[in-house]
Design brief:
This protein folds into three domains: 299 residues, no CATH class; 95 residues, Rossmann fold, CATH 3.40.50.11290; 61 residues, Dna Ligase, domain 1. Helix 2 crosses helix 6. The protein is α+β, with helices and mostly antiparallel strands. A five-stranded mixed sheet has the order 5-25-24-21-20. It is globular and about 65 Å long. The longest helix has 25 residues. It comes from Aureimonas endophytica.
């Protein structure tokens, strides 16, 4: 089946959201557009928008390729999507509170106890504790894929430290600089206000110890982290300090940062450090990335950590397979956004089916990310499938499998004009006393023809994502 083309409908021609853009594009000189692509690359390189590729000595710092054909979503389409995203995010927060308290969903038989308490992302240190404001996932990236005119699926939930928002903002800034006439012709909802929304959202979840305007800081593992550019970008755009673990210490019952005027207490710490490295007294003793004693201060109401420790269990792909039940359990409603049908390899019947149909399925590690540790059946070799079959038999609970979806396509500017490529979408959601969904998000595109893998670490690129005003 031919994938759904979001710009060029098979019989009806150009789809409504793309009409103005398509007219503009047909009037452009192809050579000038190629020059604009080179101009965008130069801008990204000057700005320092790179990401690190671990284990790749020849190209440890790379630019994420940018395609200048935007992904355009109609206002009504976005309204439906946003309703589903908000429902899902509220259910995720309710689920996280429940599993660290009464575990009603487990006692109701909706989610297996072993999937919670046997999960490496489930933190005993969070049991019985409620974070300030009752918010666990302050910043969430919900990965979506589209298969036809009406149907979007949630591919996965990113509830720990979702990345990519800096590329969303820089992509928009680049497009507005290069093609101001396009934004005069199209009423596109803004994304560049994200840092201001993020700061306000973090201020609203200040801890009980806060006795004035909340002091916010961004905690980074340092310059060698793959997302360091984003950490520095967000701290700068919010007007807050970018700190490393060595800049912080426990002073008078508070986590304080070193300044030129002495130590200053932090109220809200937007951490981009994994749970295991956050506090050497509570987790890995050898960690030098975190702050000794921060978990005790956190539990005593002296600081807000965003996102809360222990939220990683919501990223688990086995938990993901129960999201329809989770949404219904906590909201009393049917999920407005569907999951991709998922086979849990921990279940004997599902494992047998997956082993018999490896060439048709996408198999993923339950804790995997970045396109690593997965098998794309239709493009795999016999040897790769045999290797994965052995892994599945050895540790079936470590994997889930899904059908290979015909992901929608959006054209890219190729050498011979427009050429369709598969895309996904990561909208960014901010949670405090309200849910704020940024209109659009990061569209990732598989630049290799026919490829379904959009991750930047696997050669994917990005696009500006437009949500139109109705």
């Amino acid at each position: 089946m031919k994938p759904f083309d979001e710009m060029l409908a098979a019989e009806a021609g150009v789809r409504g959201p793309y009409e103005r853009f398509h007219r503009w594009f047909r009037a452009q000189d192809p050579e000038s557009l190629v020059e604009k692509t080179n101009e965008a690359e130069s801008f990204f390189r000057r700005t320092g928008i790179t990401f690190a590729v671990y284990g790749d000595a020849e190209a440890s710092e790379r630019l994420i390729p940018f395609d200048l054909v935007p992904r355009i979503i109609a206002g009504q389409e976005w309204t439906r999507l946003a309703e589903g995203i908000e429902q899902r995010v509220k259910a995720l927060n309710a689920f996280l509170h429940d599993i660290y308290h009464d575990q009603d969903i487990v006692r109701a038989g909706k989610v297996p106890r072993s999937l919670i308490e046997g999960n490496e992302a489930f933190l005993q240190q969070m049991v019985g504790f409620s974070p300030p404001g009752g918010v666990y996932t302050h910043i969430i990236g919900v990965d979506l894929v589209r298969v036809d005119e009406d149907q979007f699926y949630v591919l996965e939930d990113n509830a720990r430290t979702p990345s990519g928002v800096s590329y969303m903002i820089e992509n928009r800034e680049t497009m507005m600089q290069m093609f101001p006439e396009l934004f005069a012709q199209n009423r596109v909802r803004p994304v560049e206000t994200y840092p201001q929304h993020l700061r306000r959202s973090l201020e609203r979840v200040a801890p009980p110890a806060c006795d004035g305007p909340p002091v916010i800081a961004v905690l980074t593992p340092g310059i060698h982290n793959s997302a360091f550019y984003e950490h520095a970008f967000l701290a700068d755009q919010m007007g807050v300090e970018l700190v490393e673990g060595q800049d912080l210490k426990l002073v008078d019952g508070r986590i304080q940062m070193r300044t030129t005027e002495g130590y200053k207490a932090i109220d809200v710490l937007y951490r981009r450090v994994d749970d295991a490295f956050l506090d050497p007294l509570a987790f890995r003793p050898e960690s030098v990335l975190g702050i000794a004693g921060i978990m005790e201060v956190y539990r005593n109401g002296g600081i807000t950590i965003a996102n809360a420790p222990g939220t990683g269990i919501a990223d688990d792909k086995a938990i993901y397979s129960y999201m329809p039940e989770i949404v219904e359990f906590y909201t009393g409603e049917t999920a407005k956004l569907a999951n991709v049908p998922t086979h849990r390899c921990a279940e004997a019947e599902s494992l047998a089916y997956v082993l018999a149909h490896l060439e048709e399925l996408v198999v993923k590690e339950v804790h995997g990310s970045g396109g690593y540790g997965m098998l794309v059946g239709p493009t795999s070799t016999k040897a790769e499938r045999e290797l994965f079959a052995a892994k599945l038999k050895e540790r079936p609970g470590n994997y889930i499998a899904q059908p290979t979806l015909a992901l929608s396509t959006v054209p890219i500017l190729a050498e011979k004009g427009l050429s369709p490529r598969h895309v996904d979408l990561r909208p960014f959601v901010l949670v405090s006393d309200q849910v704020k969904i940024i209109p659009g998000g990061l569209t990732r595109v598989a630049l290799k023809e026919g490829s379904l893998v959009v991750n930047s670490s696997q050669g994917g690129g990005t696009k500006d994502t437009w949500v139109l005003e109705d």
